[in-house]
Amino acid sequence: MASDPKHRPVYVISVAAELVDMHPQTLRLYERKGLIRPGRSNGKTRLYSERDIDHLREIRRLTQELGVNLAGVEEVMRLQHELDDLQGEFEAEIERIEGELREQQSRPKALPAPNGQLDPKDRPVYVISIAAELVDMHPQTLRLYERKQLIRPGRSSGKTRLYSERDIDHLREIRRLTQELGVNLAGVEEIMRLRHELDGAKSSLEGNVRRLQEDITDRMTRWRTLPSGSEEDQGQPGEDQPAAAGEISKGR
User: Fold this and answer.
1) What backbone torsions phi and psi does residue 101 show, to the nearest 5 degrees?
2) Are residues 51 and 114 in the same domain?
3) What is the pLDDT of residues 227-248, one digit of tens each?
4) 116 and 241 co-located in one domain
5) How many domains does the chain have?
6) Is 79 inside any structural domain?
7) pLDDT class for 211, splitting at 50, 70, 90?
8) CA–CA separation, 250 vs 217, rounded Å?
9) Residues 6 or more apart in contact with residue 146 via CB below 8 angstroms
């Protein structure tokens, strides 16, 4: 993720504060709260990236436009940082797989079998009355949260709402945010939107990695089963030989 220009730390605190129309002391407070993560120069000077500036503007929008309290903002930014970290993990995994492919080209070996099974936590199993009982809410509250897109239950073939374990986790999180932290509904909507985005990003990462592994496995299997030829033929990659790492990365 360091190669992304938006993550390159370039702005000193005075410039960053001016860009987002805040006092430098406010930026220090947000850092202590873990809302932003500025980099450091060799001399320990805070340096803010374009991504940090985006985060600061988002904090201002949440607090000034939506009236979200600081506890709600902390939840939003924690999830945003998780998304950032997940993107970094994805890029690192792509690099790892490309490195593995290069190694396989010179010394083929079996790759682990992909696992495409559905996460049990996402299996829709609970009707609305059971889901409401599990989270100590009224069924009408669950319908309201669905209209607000805070939760997204599945449907049976007869259009009956069916809630998964992940939906139950989300409902419990909504209750914690509203009852324990006093986050308003606008803040809860932002937090749950990011939670759904994070879940989707994780699923996408796993799917992309799985497809890459399947592609590598298929290429290596075809390569190992090629009939023996001359050394000259083996030295020239054909259409059935493994592709270069760059070709795999194009499918990202």
Assistant:
1) -65, -45
2) no
3) 655 444 444 554 444 444 444 4
4) yes
5) 2
6) no
7) confident
8) 17
9) 152, 153, 161
Domain, as residue range, for 112: 99-225+237-249
In order, the DSSP letters of 83-146 are HHHHHHHHHHHHHHHHHHHHHHHHS--PPPPP--PPPGGG---B-HHHHHHHHT--HHHHHHHH
Element (H, E) at 175: helix 165-175
Cβ atoms of 11 and 48 closer than 8 Å? yes
pLDDT digits (tens, 9 = 90+) for 185-194: 888 888 888 8
Take residue 67 and report the two structure tokens written for it. 């009236």
Say if residue 40 is in the same domain as residue 106: no
Domain presence at residue 83: no
CATH code at position 48: 1.10.1660.10
- My answer on whether 35 and 119 are in the same domain is no
CA-to-CA distance for 53 and 110, rounded, in angstroms? 45
Task: Give rounded-to-5 percent helix, strand, coil for the chain.
Answer: 65, 5, 30
Q: For residue 168, give both structure tokens.
A: 């139950």
Segment 150-178 shows an average pLDDT of: 91
Bridge partners of 37?
none
175 in any annotated domain: yes
pTM over 0.85: no
Question: Is 59 part of a structural domain of the chain?
Answer: yes
Closest CA to 88 of 4, 1, 158, 23: 1
Which tens digit of pLDDT belongs to each residue from 87-99? 777 777 667 666 6
Of the three residues 17, 45, 65, the one that is the final residue of a domain is 65
Report the mean per-residue pLDDT for the chain.
79
Taking the C-alpha atoms of residue 54 and residue 75, their distance in angstroms, rounded to an integer, is 16
